[in-house]
Design a protein that fits this description.
InterPro entries: rRNA_ssu_MeTfrase_G, SAM-dependent_MTases_sf. It is found in: Cytoplasm. It is an enzyme of class 2 (transferase). Belongs to the methyltransferase superfamily. RNA methyltransferase RsmG family. It is built from seven helices and seven strands, in the order αααβαβαββαβαββ. By secondary structure, it is an alpha/beta fold. The chain has one domain: Rossmann fold. The protein has a seven-stranded mixed beta sheet. The radius of gyration is 16 Å and the shape is globular. The relative contact order is 0.13.
């Protein structure tokens, strides 16, 4: 917890919000599967810092869209750390109603600058600085979900695992895009993928 606060530069108020969210997640996870139960003891590194490191990749970004927001990573963590900043807004988008109810309760309880949307990511008309996602889909599908956000000027920052290189190779069969890989600070096997200039590849038929 102290290590997270130091690395993230979090205030006492933000730490209190994150701790309240951690407890809320633990209670909800007992009745619905939001995260793997074995990952909860490592909340501060595996979930909180994994999410918070994105702010260091885009320090001037104020508006974020979290696709497949699920348990609130990275979106709720970003909203807590952006709380109080002017123009801060995080959209938490998920297609499953019960996950959205969990997210809405957290947003309301912590008075976060976030909007929960129960719907398909690709159907939204949101304009934001950054579109993000964690553990949602392989890159080929994820780029499809995120394409409307890229068209409105967003850059992509996606939290990915050790298979990301093969996912990018597969995605290039369907998409033209620029991608940069950076090592995750929370897991040596993880990568953060920065994506720009996305357009669908023309069919060869």
């Amino acid at each position: 917890m102290a290590a997270f606060q130091r690395k993230a530069g979090a205030s006492e108020e933000q730490m209190a919000d994150l701790e309240a969210f951690r407890l809320r997640l633990g209670e909800a996870n007992a009745v619905m599967n939001l995260v793997g139960p074995d990952s909860l003891p490592d909340f501060w590194n595996r979930h909180a810092w994994d999410s918070a490191q994105l702010l260091q990749m885009a320090p001037t970004a104020r508006s974020w869209a979290d696709l497949g927001a699920g348990a609130g990573f990275p979106g709720v963590v970003l909203a807590i750390l952006l709380k109080g900043r002017s123009d801060a807004r995080v959209w938490l988008i998920d297609s499953l109603g019960k996950r959205c109810r969990f997210l809405q309760e957290a947003v309301d309880a912590l008075a976060l600058p976030a909007t929960v949307i129960n719907g398909r990511a690709e159907d939204q008309t949101i304009k934001c600085d950054v579109v993000t996602a964690r553990a949602v889909a392989p890159m080929e599908r994820l780029l499809g979900y995120a394409q409307p956000y890229f068209e409105r000027g967003a850059q992509g920052l996606f939290l990915k695992g050790e298979r990301v290189e093969s996912e990018l190779i597969e995605a290039r069969k369907s998409w033209h895009f620029e991608a940069e890989l950076a090592p995750s600070q929370s897991d040596p096997r993880g990568r953060i993928v920065t994506v720009r200039s996305v357009r669908r590849a023309r069919s060869k038929h």
